[in-house]
């Protein structure tokens, strides 16, 4: 009787250990680049492949090549602002579809390299717009600007490759600057916010909890997200892709956030 109980306990322990190992292996499949997903998607419907490519483009904004991370980031954007989430979705789809239509390299398209510039353009257009949420006219420049990023990316790549330089977010910078120059605060269709005049901001005492909140918010601001909860999800998406990259993101955000109080204290001490 005692031997039967002991053997049953060992069997239960082995079962739990096997379950934990399977869960751990399943989690590992969701980390990194998830290249096995690309192999699984071969021969599938184009819509499904486009969804994976676009989600990789969403995550590429923060240098993470993982569609599951992209899905978490997109969900965080919809949580923070459904309007911003819609703009980001349209932007990454427009730039990715444009790359497919004009016949860009399939490896670059599937890796999301033609999606992240469109994502950034669409999000920043929504942030700069002073027309408010659900201003449907904004969808025109969002789609057009995101598609233009793909043309700029394909045109700049051969030029910058001669000096071994990446294109990165150069197309996004060109498009968003041109958009702001062509519109203005009084534009009847696409007004945007006035720039804050120099000296308009007042210096206030910085509290510790504000600084602590600012560190994860700094990661979320990469996607123009200013809410704490969605920013934590974005940080979790980076952690899923690479814990080391998440640590670097936190360290970089902490350095930038802490620089503000030091500069503020220095300014107050010299006044």
From TrEMBL:
<protein>
    <recommendedName>
        <fullName>Urea transporter</fullName>
    </recommendedName>
</protein>
<keyword id="KW-1133">Transmembrane helix</keyword>
<keyword id="KW-0813">Transport</keyword>
<comment type="similarity">
    <text>Belongs to the urea transporter family.</text>
</comment>
<feature type="transmembrane region" description="Helical">
    <location>
        <begin position="221"/>
        <end position="242"/>
    </location>
</feature>
<dbReference type="Pfam" id="PF03253">
    <property type="entry name" value="UT"/>
</dbReference>
<dbReference type="InterPro" id="IPR004937">
    <property type="entry name" value="Urea_transporter"/>
</dbReference>
<dbReference type="GO" id="GO:0005886">
    <property type="term" value="C:plasma membrane"/>
</dbReference>
<dbReference type="InterPro" id="IPR029020">
    <property type="entry name" value="Ammonium/urea_transptr"/>
</dbReference>
<feature type="transmembrane region" description="Helical">
    <location>
        <begin position="163"/>
        <end position="181"/>
    </location>
</feature>
<keyword id="KW-1003">Cell membrane</keyword>
<keyword id="KW-0472">Membrane</keyword>
<dbReference type="GO" id="GO:0015204">
    <property type="term" value="F:urea transmembrane transporter activity"/>
</dbReference>
<feature type="transmembrane region" description="Helical">
    <location>
        <begin position="134"/>
        <end position="156"/>
    </location>
</feature>
<feature type="transmembrane region" description="Helical">
    <location>
        <begin position="249"/>
        <end position="268"/>
    </location>
</feature>
<keyword id="KW-0812">Transmembrane</keyword>
